[in-house]
Write a structure and sequence with these properties.
The complex is a heterodimer of chains A (271) and B (539). Chain A is α+β, with helices and mostly antiparallel strands. Chain A folds into 3 domains: 4-123, Cytochrome c-like domain (Cytochrome Bc1 Complex, Chain D, domain 2, Orthogonal Bundle); 137-187 and 246-266, Cytochrome c-like domain (Cytochrome Bc1 Complex, Chain D, domain 2), CATH 1.10.760; 193-239, Roll (SH3 type barrels). Helices cover 34% and strands 14% of the residues of chain A. In chain A, the strands form 2 sheets. A 5-stranded antiparallel β-sheet of chain A has the order 6-5-4-3-7, with no helix packed on it. Chain A has a two-stranded antiparallel sheet with strand order 1-2. Chain A is globular. Chain B has a single domain (38-538), classed as Methanol Dehydrogenase, Chain A. In chain B, strands 1-32-33-34-35 form a 5-stranded mixed β-sheet, with no helix packed on it. Chain B is globular, with a radius of gyration of 23 Å. Chain B is built from 3 helices and 38 strands. Chain B is mainly β. The chains are: A alpha+beta (271), B mainly beta (539). The interface between A and B is medium-sized, with 24 and 39 residues.
Chain lengths: 271, 539
């Protein structure tokens, strides 16, 4: 059992620490404790290690040991889907009313603990590369428009057969992106699993699965039309192993062009 | 003048009759579903069979089943309750400590009950509630802040409010109480927070606690020797919560109740031994709460396999002998048949793919297979933490000797680490990582005399739906939001209706004005189904 005095000291220390790191960029409101809007401990090795230990004890039971979700949601994609440090911190502090997600009592979980946990979660797969990758982002953007934007949206431009990549730079490592482009990634995001429907008259319809139950399936077909089918009208539903995204091997995209493309993707962090 | 006197006298007589004739007696509860206009306990009758004698809706006409009305709870959260039906009124609880009386004919609200959920309530797995108990003119309900309350059937007004335990220490209430004689028997939740589990009985009249049975054996209990190891006080925060309603045998006067996981969930190094009476079924004297017998399904549970499933009572002929049994499809993946007078194990067979044990030995203990303990680096174990089934009620058709159970084959990677107990904080000592491949969910029919699978209907996704069966040869269950009807002999799907939300409860059924209704909680709705009036009249 921790003593109250020790906890109080920790809170004070952490607030001083966090406040000091916040510097002048985020002046505290009158009467409110200073709290930065960006994680002052992001990328800090000690913080990631401590955060990992705290995550296991306080969060992993619901969110899974790898933060990819179990009873609670997957946390690794939060930043990629547009959440800010500040918003995530606020949810952890206040909890989510009406759900199992509890509020974090400041006496038991001072700000510094939360920042350390956030640093850990962000370091899991979905972490940002520390240094921007080499490559010419301008050429990468041109390559993207030629090869990718038919299926992927950036901003409000592009297709929607594949995931929106407007924030992919803050959500995936360079290695993970390179694997995906080269066709080496096994993981397909839910909602984009490849599937082929075979109708009773033998027609084959390829697309990505949006939803499914015992009696129906909903897909986006390769012409990017949302379609629903009753299973009673289908002869077969084939779960494909091969992603609908073509693999861009070295014959289609040179190593140099891949570097350029990754440099461009790295710049995509939302507006 | 004479008219006025007659009116006053008449009104007084009516008032007197209303005040003196309680709506529901203990005998009514004993009668279970014999009166088909009523559904008065969590699982329909004391045997918890969820099997109705009603036959208006049949395999031949169920495809004409049609929604008659929808009641909107306007309360998000998992709708896990079993509604009660009484004399044309539905009584049902919702998440967030809510409840309603609803006109069963029209779906219109009569009254609404809401208890403000205090800040700081901890509920590991949803701020849910599984339903009311009823006796006389009173409903009984557990609350998220670990109280038991009595509520007037007439108005929703609180008649008494009894504290079970301090919610700040992780205790909560989600169980539908079971009313036996003049007592309200209630369970609690919280084994993810280092609670000490119990089953309580309260006087229905006053709310005074009559007895308590602790599910972790204290020093004055012979089971205490099953708590050994570094943590001498492990039993004080050893879990064993009681969050699903039990059953009752009036002849033996025994209450049967399932108990939850030992705590911390995945870290057992400091609580060596079997950790009685966690992950068990206990048979308690209904008058005193004294333990008559127990059977532990998962000794020294380190997999979070709560045995908080519904114990189903039945009278079977096994090996030519008539046996009074309790049947239990357990989260650990085995289907058990026990003698309900003695607790003797009669048969145990896996109803899903299990890796931790393949058989239960003649001594009643699982034959553990090596390599199935949670570890620091993670161990793949089947079933996963959510188990082969869970709280969702099975149903039992005695004419077919079939138990219908929502089942799932799944595996998880179990991690463990040391955890220190602090009141009110999560106390799990590990976690489980989801494995999506190989997951298979289904409705399964188990022949209870052999343990063999008679049929299954595969689901597209994991289901949390309870099951209802009827004497006409139907089974109602569901998944992925689909409410479905099956032929109970073959498992053939006969009808479905997409409700728009995953199902967390089972349907109930009752007769009203000559029509059989099937009532299903789903999402924020309660939907009443029936055959079109013309079809119902022809039956």
């Amino acid at each position: 059992m921790r003593s109250v005095a020790a906890v109080a000291t920790l809170v004070l220390l952490s607030e001083l620490l966090v406040g000091a790191r916040a510097g002048g960029q985020n002046p505290p409101a009158a009467g409110a404790a200073a709290r930065p809007t960006m994680n002052p401990l992001e990328g800090n090795r000690d913080a990631i290690q401590n955060g990992g230990a705290m995550f296991r004890n306080r969060c992993a039971g619901c969110h899974g040991p790898d933060a990819r979700g179990y009873l609670g949601p997957d946390l690794t994609g939060l930043w990629a889907s547009g959440w800010t440090d500040d918003r995530i911190f606020t949810v952890v502090r206040r909890g989510v009313p009406g759900t199992e997600m509890p509020a974090a009592d400041p006496l038991r979980a001072p700000d510094r603990d939360i920042w350390q946990i956030l640093a850990y979660v962000r370091s899991l797969g979905g972490g940002v590369p520390v240094a921007p990758p080499a490559g010419n982002a301008q050429n990468g953007e041109r390559l993207f428009r030629t090869n990718c934007s038919t299926c992927h949206m950036v901003g409000a431009q592009g297709g929607q057969l594949g995931p929106d990549l407007s924030r992919i730079g803050s959500g995936r490592t360079r290695t993970a992106l390179a694997k995906k482009v080269r066709g080496d990634a096994a993981y397909t995001r839910p909602g984009y699993e490849p599937v082929t429907l075979v109708t009773r008259d033998g027609q084959r319809i390829r697309g990505v699965r949006k939803n499914e139950d015992e009696f129906s399936i909903q897909i986006m077909d390769m012409r990017q039309r949302l379609q629903g089918y009753l299973k009673a009208n289908l002869a077969d539903i084939v779960d494909e192993q091969q992603s609908v995204m073509p693999a861009f091997g070295a014959d289609r995209l040179s190593d140099g062009d891949l570097d350029d493309l990754l440099a461009y993707l790295h710049t995509l962090r939302g507006s | 003048m004479r008219l006025t006197v007659a009116f006053v006298l008449g009104a007084t007589a009516t008032l007197f009759a209303q005040q003196t004739a309680p709506q529901v007696t203990f005998q009514d509860l004993r009668n279970g579903l014999d009166d088909p206009t009523r559904w008065l306990t969590y699982a329909g009758n004391y045997a918890s069979q969820r099997h109705s004698p009603l036959t208006q809706i049949t395999p031949q006409n169920v495809n004409r089943l049609t929604a008659q009305w929808v009641f909107q709870t306007d309360t998000p959260g998992k709708f896990e309750a079993a509604p009660l039906a009484l004399d044309g009124v539905i009584y049902v609880t919702g998440p967030e400590d809510t409840g309603w009386a609803i006109d069963a004919r029209s779906g219109r609200q009569i009254w609404r009950y809401r208890r403000d959920v205090v800040s700081g309530v901890i509920a590991c797995c949803g701020r849910v509630n599984r339903g009311f108990g009823i006796l006389g003119d009173r409903l009984f309900k557990t609350t998220l802040d670990a109280h038991v309350v009595a509520i007037s059937t007439k108005s929703g007004a609180i008649l008494w409010d009894a504290v079970m335990e301090n919610y700040k220490n992780g205790y909560s209430g989600t169980t539908a109480p079971l009313v036996v004689k003049d007592k309200v028997i209630a369970g609690m939740a919280g084994a993810e927070y280092g609670v000490r589990g119990f089953v309580d009985a309260y006087e229905a009249q006053s709310g005074k606690r009559v007895w308590r049975f602790y599910t972790t054996a204290g020093p004055d209990d012979p089971g205490h020797r099953t708590w050994r190891g570094l943590d001498a006080k492990a039993w004080e925060h050893g879990g064993g919560s009681t969050w699903t309603t039990g059953s009752y045998d009036p002849e033996l006067n025994l209450v049967y109740w399932g108990t939850g996981n030992a705590g911390p969930d995945y870290y057992g190094n400091e609580r060596e031994g079997d950790n009685l009476y966690t992950a068990s079924i206990v048979a308690l004297d209904a008058d005193t709460g004294k333990l008559r017998w127990h059977y532990q399904f998962t000794p020294h549970d380190v997999w979070d396999w709560d045995s908080t499933q519904v114990p189903v009572l039945g009278d079977l002929t096994l090996a030519g002998q008539p046996r009074k049994v309790v049947m239990f499809a357990n989260r650990n993946g085995f289907f058990y048949v026990l003698d309900r007078a003695t607790g003797q194990l009669l048969r145990a067979t896996p109803f899903i793919t299990t890796s931790w044990a393949k058989t239960i030995g003649a001594d009643g203990r699982p034959q553990l297979l090596p390599g199935n303990m949670p570890s620091e680096v993670g161990t793949r174990i089947c079933p996963d933490q959510s188990g082969g089934t869970n709280w969702m009620s099975p149903s039992f058709d005695p004419s077919l000797n079939l138990l219908f159970v929502t089942a799932r084959d799944s595996c998880g990677v179990f991690y463990t680490w040391k955890d220190d107990y602090e009141p009110g904080l999560a106390y799990r000592g590990g976690a489980v990582q989801r494995i999506t491949e190989g997951h298979h969910a289904a409705l399964r029919a188990i022949d209870v005399t052999t343990g063999a699978r008679r049929w299954e209907f595969p689901y597209a996704a994991q289901s949390w739906a309870g099951v209802l069966s009827t004497a006409s040869g139907l089974v109602f269950a569901g998944s992925s939001g689909n409410f479905m009807a099956f032929d109970s002999r073959t498992g053939k799907n006969l009808w479905h209706y997409q409700t728009g939300s995953p199902l967390y409860a089972g349907a109930i059924t009752y007769m009203l004005d000559g029509r059989q209704y099937v009532l299903l909680p789903s999402g924020t709705t309660l939907t009443a189904f029936a055959l079109p009036e013309s079809t119902a009249e022809r039956q």
